[in-house]
Structure formats: structure tokens, C-alpha cells
């Protein structure tokens, strides 16, 4: 109870309604941070995928150029057979970037920069989440003790009413 009292005094909470309101507000803030964090994580994963496919395209591009430079059907088919996995990966990567990620132009440096910025923002939000979550946990603990005290007081009142002689 002493810890609960000090917590309430520190946060200038003087009524149960204020405790409820602040608990609700803090819980909403934590939920918002979680939602933002999920969106950031999803974008980071999307950028990882885009970067991977773009790097495949960049790495395999010389093979595609070499294949396109061969105009003799037999030699071209032989070259294609020798490099079929790379060629398939190239066209699959192109299709995924275009259809799934709506990429019109490959820009790996800007994607990496965005990814680094998002990771930095994610770290900041993680620290903010931890502090808010700790405060919310304390507040919920205090709320529990307040509810327990209210319940005990109500039980004492019921016992007093039963013990009083009836006229």
C-alpha cells in the first residue's frame, strides 16, 4: 500500500476516476505505439524483400545482357540451358518487384537509407514503449490494490450492518 500511495502521489492521482482515466490513456498510448511498431516492422520486411530482389537483378543483369547479345538460336538455347536458374531468378525478381511491390525503378541506396531510418525509429519507439509499459504496469498494480482496498472496505461495511441489532 505504501508503494501504491507514493506512486499515486508522484503522478498526482487523487481519485479513482483519475486513476481510471490515466490508466485508459496510458493503455491507449501503448496500443498506438504497438500499432506503429508493427507498421514499421512490416515496412522494414518489405524493404528487405525489395533490396534482395533488386540485388538479384543487378547481379544477374550481365548474364541477361550476354544472352540477349547472342542471335544464333542454337548458341542462345545452349547459353540459356547453362544459366537457366539465374535467368529464372532474374525474371521472377523482376515480376515480384513490379507486381507485389509496385517498383518502377530500382533504387537500392534510397531503400537502404529508408530502412536504416526506420530501424532507428523502431529503436526509439522500443525505448518509449518500455517506459510506458513499465508505468502502465505500475498503474495497473496500484489499481489492483485500490480495488482490493475498496472491496475489503465494502466487506467490513456488510459485516457491521449484519452485526447491528435489529429493532
What does it look like?
With 167 residues, the chain is mainly α. 87% of the residues lie in helices and 0% in strands. The protein is built from 5 helices and no strands. α2 (16-69) packs across α4 (84-99).
What are the defining features of this structure?
5 helices; mainly alpha; 167 residues
Concise synopsis of the structure shown:
The protein contains 5 helices and no strands. By secondary structure, the protein is an all-alpha fold.
Note the beta-strand portion: under 5%
Please outline the major beta sheet.
Answer: none
Mean pLDDT: 90
Output the structural class.
mainly alpha
Helix content class: over 70%
Low-confidence stretches: none
- The rounded Rg comes to 31 Å
- Described by the principal axes of the CA atoms, the overall outline is rod-shaped
Blueprint of the fold:
Blueprint: H1 2-10, H2 16-69, H3 73-82, H4 84-99, H5 108-163
Helix pairs in contact: 1-5, 2-4, 2-5
Amino acid at each position: 500500500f505504501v508503494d501504491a500511495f507514493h506512486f499515486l502521489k508522484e503522478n498526482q492521482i487523487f481519485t479513482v476516476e483519475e486513476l481510471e482515466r490515466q490508466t485508459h490513456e496510458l493503455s491507449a498510448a501503448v496500443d498506438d505505439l504497438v500499432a506503429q511498431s508493427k507498421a514499421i516492422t512490416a515496412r522494414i520486411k518489405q524493404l528487405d524483400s525489395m533490396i534482395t530482389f533488386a540485388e538479384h537483378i543487378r547481379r544477374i543483369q550481365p548474364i541477361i545482357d550476354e544472352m540477349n547479345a547472342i542471335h544464333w538460336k542454337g548458341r542462345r538455347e545452349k547459353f540459356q540451358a547453362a544459366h537457366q536458374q539465374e535467368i529464372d531468378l532474374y525474371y521472377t525478381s523482376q515480376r515480384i518487384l513490379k507486381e507485389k511491390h509496385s517498383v518502377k525503378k530500382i533504387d537500392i541506396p534510397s531503400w537502404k537509407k529508408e530502412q536504416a531510418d526506420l530501424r532507428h525509429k523502431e529503436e526509439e519507439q522500443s525505448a518509449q514503449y518500455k517506459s510506458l509499459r513499465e508505468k502502465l504496469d505500475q498503474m495497473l498494480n496500484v489499481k489492483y490494490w485500490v480495488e482490493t482496498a475498496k472491496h475489503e472496505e465494502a466487506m467490513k461495511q456488510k459485516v457491521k450492518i449484519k452485526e447491528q441489532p435489529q429493532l
